[in-house]
Amino acid sequence: LTLGYAYKFDRTDFLGGFSAGLGLKYIQSHVVSNASTEALDFGLLSPKYLGEKLRLAFTLTNLGGTMRFDAANESLPMTCKLGSAYKMTDRWSVSADLGFPRSNEPYGAFGAEYRFPLKYDASLAGRLGYNTRTADDISGFTGFALGLGFGFRQFDMDYGFLPFGYLGLTHRVSLTARF
Fold first, then answer.
1. Sequence-ordered alpha helix ranges (H) in 42-169
2. Tens-digit pLDDT profile for residues 122-149
3. In angstroms, what is the C-alpha Rg of the chain?
4. From the CB of residue 81, how many other CB atoms can be counted at a distance below 10 Å?
């Protein structure tokens, strides 16, 4: 269970066109024994480049915090990511990320989204992605992800489908509200 709150600091006069975000979270684990900790996420988003089509990003996730179980302490899986998004057309975007986890090999993730405008300020999006971190980890069809999204004004609902070979399928659902 992860509970969090993020605040976007967006003062272009202060950051030279960059946006910064900070997220505080409380993490609990109830598997064999109980553990909890606090952690921080930090992100930096560039202004738009190349005719307002390219954005670059930098994030650090799971800063601080150690899960204290009965007999052992486990550091959270801190990860540094460099990302980019390029708007090919008004409807089609592509992205690429490089991840550098503290306790694992670097990996790449690539994706594309095509957005269909609908009536009444709504839209429908189709997504396809590939992540080298999950490819070939488990026998079977892995590494790819498919998704759908529905947006209506300041609200979004997204669904993601990720196969994990013989371990089965993962379904992710998220709800977003922008204020």
1. none
2. 999 999 999 888 776 555 667 889 999 9
3. 18
4. 17
